[in-house]
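Batch 3, record 17
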Amino acid sequence: MTTSLRDLGERAGRVPAPQLDVAAVVAAGESRLRRRRATAVAAVAAVVAAVLSAAVLLAPGARLAAPPPAHDRTHAPDDGDTVETRPASRLLTYSVGTVIHWGDRTIDVGQVARGRQPRRTSLDYLDATDDGVVFITGPQLKRDESGQLGIGYGASAVWFTDGSTPVRIGTTSGSAVRGFGIGTSLSGSTLAWKEPGDESSETLADPFGPVVVYDTGQKREVARFGGADAEVLTVYDDVVYWSSGDAPCAIRSDFGCYRPRWVMRFEKASGLQAQVGWADYEADRRSRPGVLTGPYVGDARVEGPVSYEFIGFVRRGGRLFADGGEPGAVFTPTVALTGRPVRLRMPAGDRTSDALAISQWLDADRVVLVAPHSYSGADGTELLVCRLSTGGCRLAARFPDANYTEAGPAGIHG
Amino acid sequence: MAVRERPEAAFHEFVAARSASLFRTALLMVGDHQLAQDLLQESLVKTYVAWPRLRDVANVEAYARRVVVTTSISWRRRRSFHERPVDPLPELVVADLADSVIGRLDLWPLVQALPPRQRAAVVLRYCEDLSEAQAAELMGCSVGAVKKNASVGLAKLRDRMGGQLTMPTTTPDESAVPS
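Prediction for the assembled complex:
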């Protein structure tokens, strides 16, 4: 039997489209517009209002601090060599199906995953802390008016396992396509996520709940703060940067505000909150390990280098260059902390992948790159561990099918 | 129809009229019914946000379709595309509509296994019957990039399918099909 691509298209057209909840789509759109309008107010008035609203948004017991030093180097080593000899703080983490691989350990979380979605055969998100693995199995399925099962847009359970039975530690929202508002620190025990406003609601609208900070070592919630438009920006073990959603926008992209004038900084030890300017936020990021710099890749007009914790790479022969976003556009990123260029090389003889991406930082010098098999059409997906200081990469894991989840941020990138 | 305002009625009308077509593109791009639904809804949210600056309904549809395509290309995570039930679950059979209609075609998994840009070029050119220029507009790239990606993608499909794949016909000025 022969088949054609046109036939494939026609058959796809015969698959019934889902019954859309247009009101939910409109609500989600209005939520994003409200965030935009909030950032468009006059700068002086906004700063005043933001200070007030930030104070209101804080959870009981949390306090506003004076702005911290613009460039807090308490976590920055004295020189680059010190960084590169730091002991490894993270274990290679990924899952195949519902079996999590965390260093040498394997943890089968299938019972948890299928309890949420009976058809579930993989995870929507996972990442590691120093104490174990955090994972999300995805939102509950729901049935629309026609009886068709679809992705629910309500809550997704956040789970944690240290190798023993997984424990539900919280709730977030999002989906595999749209991403989850969750982040972990490069080292230590801190993670933070955006909580949905109403766990039981099945709405497509952006999550409306607070930001939750959790410590996987202490196995307890540390703080919750922020309102409907709060977003997690960057998580360190001692500090969580977040956007309250009401800062005036300095640089706008096609789909929202790329750079607000200021962000909020939560200090885990003291519980203090402070408002810091974007430049100070950037300076702090670049003073820590786990950040690369390079030209902006996106739709906004941004001058000068920007910071990336995660970035894609494309292969040119045996060399890897950062993906510049446009066809043929590549660049050589630098390590923010040392200023050294990143010149990665594929393992000898490995030409299977054309496009790769950072999945996980094992320490200041070692990153995990995921090389999906789909990019080359070859069988198998690879995880490579690469040293930024030498450029060398080695094969760390290989699995034959596509039913895997790599560590790191979920959802849409680019 | 002018869309300078954002009346909900007009948006409802647009969704009712065009969501099936947009869903087809989303399904071809990601290959999974639930992910396609997620992708479609995310694209519609972005379209709603952009509504005031889209001058007429033709621009609205083009914008929404472009969001579907570019989002599916930029989404680097693929592992969910091939999810299948691990046990027979009769009450969930309705969830496998896409599988039942198109999943049995040998070509379907091969298209889904193509790299994102090659898959987009092949789907838009040969499943959706768009011109190279139209495909380039939706993918946000040059016509040359569409030609290259479609050519390489098609060659891979032909390698895997051999004589079972009916090759697309081409016009003399289009060189996307490898010889």
